[in-house]
Specification:
Elements (H helix, E strand, L loop, with lengths): L22 H7 L3 H10 L11 H24 L5 H18 L9 H24 L6
Helix pairs in contact: 1-5, 2-3, 2-4, 3-4, 4-5
Length: 139
């Protein structure tokens, strides 16, 4: 899949032939960057709000948004995502969100969470990519 944005109004025919999806493409698709971008943009604003549980509420909102975004994208692209992809993307969001912010600050220190979140940021998409690779045909 090319990174260059194609002007859709200029032509109705695809300009680039379909590209075979690589293992790296599959792993990167398991990281919910669209939700993480929103989460990391809004997260620092919570320091200016007096409500103690706002970081937790943002975290839970992100957890709920990850499967919703995948569902909407699957419908828009007319490709059905298997349920393990929903699980892996949600776990990847949890790992990245814990590494980027402190949603559980009232209960846990950053040091308690970093030992789990740091390796999980890499391992969750990698292991998820390997697990989902075993069944290459969509169901």
């Amino acid at each position: 899949m090319p990174l260059a944005l194609i002007d859709r109004s200029a032509t109705s025919k695809p300009l680039v032939p379909p590209v075979q999806e690589t293992d790296l493409d599959r792993i990167l698709k398991l990281i919910p960057t669209e939700v993480l971008a929103l989460y990391t943009a809004i997260g620092p604003l919570s320091t200016h709000v007096t409500w103690t549980y706002l970081p937790l509420a943002l975290f839970l909102g992100g957890v709920a948004l990850v499967p919703l975004v995948l569902l909407l994208d699957s419908r828009a692209m007319n490709v059905r995502a298997r349920w393990p992809q929903y699980v892996v993307r949600t776990l990847a969001f949890v790992a990245w969100a814990l590494a980027a912010s402190r949603p559980f600050a009232p209960w846990l220190s950053k040091d308690d969470v970093i030992w789990v979140s740091a390796p999980a940021v890499l391992l969750v998409p990698l292991v998820g990519g390997l697990v989902l690779r075993a069944r290459s045909t969509p169901t």
